[in-house]
Amino acid sequence: MDLSSTKKLHNGITIPRLGLGVYKVPEEQVYDTVSSALDLGYRHIDTASFYGNEEGVGKAVHNSGIPREEIFVTSKVWNDDQGYENTLKAFDRSMDKLGFEYLDLFLIHWPVPDVFPETWKALEKVYEKRQTRAIGVSNFLDHHLGELAKTANETPVVDQIELHPKLTQKSTVDYCREHHIAVESWSPLGRAKYLDDSALVKMAGKYDKSVAQLIIRWHLENNLIVIPKSTNASRQKENAAVFDFEISPEDKKYMDQMNENLRIGSHPDNTKGL
């Protein structure tokens, strides 16, 4: 297993298991950030209209010299753009900024109440037209997924949720696994809040790895797709150096039991303030 390792989604396409997130990476910085990641072997880039950096992501992919079909790019529709017609327009805007003929994965960014079922219909439309290779959701809890299933013709291939050792979201992960929805972890390092955790520091030392590497490896061993963010090429390289060790069963059990339901981002049931 290495940076080229992929996970097969339920519609048959594959997604690289380790990617790069570009949340809050400024437009003027994202080109270099994505370029360095691609140079290191990353083939999975996660952006969103809300991030304001789709154009830089697109340029970096175009100028990389790597065939487009070898790079997996995700974008998302923001809350203010939800609803059927608005979502179709938002998708076109994202495609214009990225400069792509197709997208690999398009997500609903948050489950805006009463609106996301119509938003999903728009995603099904762009999928039907083969403008995107796959569609999914982000920040959906199990009850949102259950509500969506009542009217959806397509099951999301991915649910991208905040997930790290202090927030394991077991009920949502269990729902996804039961319905063959891949789980993708955003903020997989807990926004660096746990990198000085004494138990994890000691544990990582046993493997001659950093705490960040230990946590990323934990995601992979739990069959999660993981998209740590870093604008620093050396840190990107460090984050990718996680395929040459395995966490022992006892250490993995300890990490699996660290959950405190400690959310860093917003709660998916409270989207009004986003």
Which properties best describe this structure?
single chain, alpha/beta, TIM Barrel, 8-stranded parallel sheet, 10 helices, 38% helix
Summarize the structure.
The protein has 274 residues and is α/β, with parallel strands linked by helices. It has 10 helices and 10 strands.
CATH topology: TIM Barrel
- End-to-end Cα distance, whole Å, is 37 Å
- What is the mean predicted local confidence, pLDDT? 97
CATH homologous superfamily title:
NADP-dependent oxidoreductase domain
Pfam families: Aldo_ket_red
Family: Belongs to the aldo/keto reductase family.
Protein name: Aldo/keto reductase
Keywords: NADP, Oxidoreductase
Molecular structure report:
The protein has 274 residues and is α/β, with parallel strands linked by helices. It has a single domain (6-194, 222-245), classed as TIM Barrel, CATH 3.20.20. It is 38% helix and 14% strand. The protein has ten helices and ten strands. The chain has helices at residues 27-40, 54-62, 84-98, 116-128, 142-149, 170-178, 198-206, 211-221, 233-240, 249-256, and strands spanning 6-8, 14-16, 20-21, 44-46, 72-77, 105-108, 135-138, 158-162, 182-186, 225-226. The strands form two sheets. An eight-stranded parallel β-sheet has the order 3-4-5-6-7-8-9-10. It has a two-stranded antiparallel sheet with strand order 1-2. α1 packs parallel to α2 (54-62), α2 (54-62) crosses α3 and α3 crosses α4 (116-128). The protein is globular and about 55 Å long. The model has no long low-confidence stretch (mean pLDDT 97). One of its GO terms (molecular function) is oxidoreductase activity, acting on the CH-OH group of donors, NAD or NADP as acceptor. The active site is at residue 51.
